Fold this protein.
Amino acid sequence: MSTTVKNIFGVAAAVVVLLGFNLAIDNESVTLSDSAAIDKVESAENKPVASLKDFNDAIVDIAENTNPSVVTITTKRVEEVRVINPFSQFFGNPRGDGETRERVQRGLGSGVIVSEEGYILTNNHVIEQADEIQVRLFDGNQVDAELIGTDPQTDIAVLRIDVDNPPAVQIGNSDELKVGSFVLAIGSPLSENLAHTVSFGIVSAKGRNIGLIQNRQEQWVGYEDFIQTDAAINPGNSGGALIDISGELVGINSAIASRSGGNDGIGFTIPINLAKRIMNDLIDDGEVSRGYLGMYMAGEVDQTMARGLGLGDIRGIMVGRVEEDGPADKAGLQEKDIIVSLNGEKVKDWASFRTRIAAFKPGDEIALGIIRNEANMTLEVTLGIRPQEQTASVTPQNKEEMDERLGFTVRELTSEIRSQLNIENETKGVVVLEVREGSNAYERGLRSQDIITEVGRTSIDSASDFYEQLEEIESDVVLLTVKRNDLEQYIAFEI
């Protein structure tokens, strides 16, 4: 048999294996579709792939069976804007205060029906700040959607629709997905008229952390573990489905890297295992619980640092400050330890390490492989509960009004912010975010990243304390005690 013929048979055999590969995932808190609830792709089970036409027919079957599970999401947000008539001063309104009008903003995205109860997975950025959310199904029917919950730090949102027999997709296992695997991306790119567009490609890479999910104003960084694909993804595809060759959902399409604003063959998808874990937390508890280690990184150990430490060819992260009485401290982790593995898997960098820790739940036990004084050790750590950010007691409307009067906003001193700004645990207060130039606070010297420790002469521990103390001030002057570069100073300004 010639080499060419052997190669052809080899490719055909490989395709047969891919098409016949199915994974069983145990149902958790919601009823996810299984082989009894959804028609399997016929060609994936019964048809041998002996030609390119058979392979084409298999892809067509997958698209036809999964497309009805993908929905188009439209959002509506109404906000009030002040419109000033430049000629008002000549017609009885010398101050020119203007009038308030409503402005309607509309958004477009995609979603995937993932359970028989009508739960839909999509991106947080698709429905963020929306006043109304509607879902258009494959048959053209449009229904209102209920927002179950969101997790901005993974860009996941969960909706629910009340319809009979929603066409739920079968859930796959993204951990088993391989680089080079064939995938389909389904969504509504660019406009509603292009709903249920299907594109074809491969998995280009896994475990991508590109710094996409973050909020610079509030100074937090999200958790990323993207699947990269070259299947065409465009604006509007966000929240859509990434389907593997078995006709199973393996990811929620989220973003693209592009110089043109359109598809350049670099798309990023949230793995379904991560999305499902977040969804179950939001459905069961109304919030997401993440494992907490209680340590800060002192640096990533790359090839150069490893040589400098005399440790040969290793990779990992060096431990910085360890929080007193935290999970890491209780397990015996020390400053300057080098973490080289997590549950037997190598640690590559800080971003992927913190994402893997956050994927565990409080109470889960993990094994950290470390190097201490050139000796290898293993520490068993029981993860704790991640400190929750306290919520200000003032209502959102009052808070926004207060922020407008102040000319700046504040945020809790979370562990991430303490690490970024190198703030000691003993320091209590709130961090200043953006300060509006031209505001009295800015003119008097307040700047972003200042730490406010007192309002008036009263110490504060949280954003709740900050706003409560402001409400108790009877004069029109605010006195703040501020720490900047470990130096304490007072700033007073009028509001």
In short: The chain is about 20% helix and 35% strand. The two ends are 87 Å apart (CA to CA).
